[in-house]
Amino acid sequence: MASNSQPTSTDFTQLPSKDFGGSQIGRAALAVAIRELKSGAKEIGGNNCGLWVKKYLDGLAPEGSSWCAGFISYCFANSGFSMRFDYTVSARDLLNQFRNKGWCYNPNEKLAPEPGDIVVWRRTKPNSWQGHAGIVHHFHDGKLYTIEGNRSPKVDGFMYSYKGIKNILGLGRVPDIG
Known about the structure:
Largest sheet: 7 strands, antiparallel
Mean pLDDT: 91
Shape: globular
Structural class: alpha+beta
Oligomer: single chain
CATH architecture: Alpha-Beta Complex
CATH class: Alpha Beta
Radius of gyration: 15 Å
Number of helices: 4
Number of strands: 7
Helix content: 10-25%
Strand order of the largest sheet: 1-6-5-4-3-7-2
Strand content: 15-25%
Order of helices and strands: EHHHHEEEEEE
């Protein structure tokens, strides 16, 4: 996982301006992420435990499991749009689904991250099953702002120097239909 995040004074409780871009479904999923952040979503009673964690895992994994990808899946499933990918609690599965649909891009491509895009990092070895996922809040002046579950014990916002992101596996964007 990326270790070069820095504290930020960005207001993650507000949807970024449409000037930052983003697909309609991605921005709607981001709005759900913001709602969860504002509601104080967090682990309760131990690592990877509690009502919010169970909600994000959606019965696909037992309480105590990593919940970052479940959080992303939850946001898209509750966006008011057809999800267009399978609900998953695995960051690598999430990325693979996006790759299979042709929705992925790499940080070294000319495509800039937009609100509602997903970002997936590796946590250990490149070929490991382990990963971590977040949803892009916005991208500005070489900085990537994300909302993530399970990066800390709560849903929270983070900022990364985009060129300095380590261990990134890829980014993805759910395109609008039609």
